[in-house]
Every structure is written in C-alpha cells, then in structure tokens.
Amino acid sequence: MNVLGISGSMQPNGNTAYLVKKILEAATEANAEATCEFVSLGGHHIYPCTGCLQCREKKECVITNDDWGKVAEKVVECDVLVIGTPVYYYDVCGQMKNFIDRTYSLWHDRKLSGKYVVTVAVNGDCGADRALETLEGFANAHEFIYAGSVTGKAFLPGDIANDKAALEAADKIGQKIATLG
Ligand SMILES: Cc1cc2nc3c(=O)[nH]c(=O)nc-3n(C[C@H](O)[C@H](O)[C@H](O)COP(=O)(O)O)c2cc1C
C-alpha cells in the first residue's frame, strides 16, 4: 500500500508538514508494509490552472514547465492520499488551491477514483472547518473514499507540537490508514 502525504504549505517544515508526517509515521508504525512518502509543495513551482480546458481533450495538463506533473504522478500512483493545508483566510492556502485546480486534467477520466483520502487543516485560531470543506470538495469531485480528517491549532512555527488532541488524532488516523487497502 502506497501512502502519499502532501503538505500544501510553503513552509516545508511548518505545522502542516509536521502533522501530515505524524500521520505517515503512525501508519508506518502500525503496518510495516505501508510505503509512505511525504511531499511538501513548499519549494515547488505550481502555476495556477489557466482554464484553457485543453485537458478535456488531451487528458493531461498542457502546462509542463513547472513541478505539478511530478507531484501529480505520485498522487496517481498512491493508494491513500493524506492532503494537508495551512488555513489562510478561512480556507486552503494558495499553493494548495493551485495544486487542486490543476488536478482537473486527472478528473476527466476519474484517474483518482477509488483512492482513500485523509484531509488535514492547521489553523492559528479559526477557519479549519472551511478549509476541510474545500479539501473534501476536491476529494468528492474526484471520487476519493473519505477516510477521515485531522485539524490542528498552531500559529507560530512548531506550535503544533503542543496540540495534543491533534497529535492523538493523527496517531489514530495513521493506525486506521494502516488497515486500509
Ligand atoms: C496569509 C495567512 C493567512 C492566515 N489566515 C488564517 C486564518 O484565516 N485563520 C487562522 O486561524 N490562521 C490563519 N493563519 C495562520 C496559519 O494558519 C498558521 O500559522 C499555520 O500554523 C501555518 O501552517 P504552516 O506552518 O504549515 O504554514 C494565516 C497565516 C497566513 C500567513
């Protein structure tokens, strides 16, 4: 079973990355056969979808001069996607939205249908619910099988390590992932 964890934060070692990695660690601990990979969208160039609609015919995105394709390849290959975002203005951050919009090219043939998804949102204070709704909208459109969600409360870098409830939830969902597939 391939588990792919993605953090949409531009901070490669930020709070979202920490929580997503905790989930992967728990999955690996509970199932030695689970292959877990973590990808931070921070440091990757992901241009916005231009809405050209060429992917409806070509079944692939015509923007090829950025890093989206290599991340998308990993998403297509995984069995379980753990997708996490920091909350920006009560929603997903821009980098995550760019990533989501570009998956339109995978939607036409439902290339992600039947995979499991776990959604993760980290906010300083509020807005995680709406960010999770956005991630769930992405997941539902692609026909993922929803396997749960985790929210974290953290503002400054590293604060997430103090959110015991989030760490416990991450551990629990990681163990659940280990039983999937
Ligand atoms: C541009 C921006 C917008 C933000 N908007 C919100 C918000 O609406 N609600 C909130 O609780 N925290 C908000 N925050 C705080 C982040 O969600 C918080 O710092 C989070 O831990 C960052 O995660 P990261 O370390 O993975 O990037 C915002 C931060 C930034 C930089």
From TrEMBL:
InterPro entries: Flavoprotein-like_sf (IPR029039), FMN_Rdtase-like_dom (IPR005025), ISF_SsuE-like (IPR051796). Residues 1-149 form the NADPH-dependent FMN reductase-like domain. GO terms for molecular function: oxidoreductase activity. It comes from the Archaea. Gene3D superfamilies: 3.40.50.360. Keywords: Flavoprotein, FMN. Its cofactor is [4Fe-4S] cluster; FMN. SUPFAM superfamilies: Flavoproteins. Belongs to the SsuE family. Isf subfamily. This is Flavodoxin family protein. It comes from Methanogenium marinum.
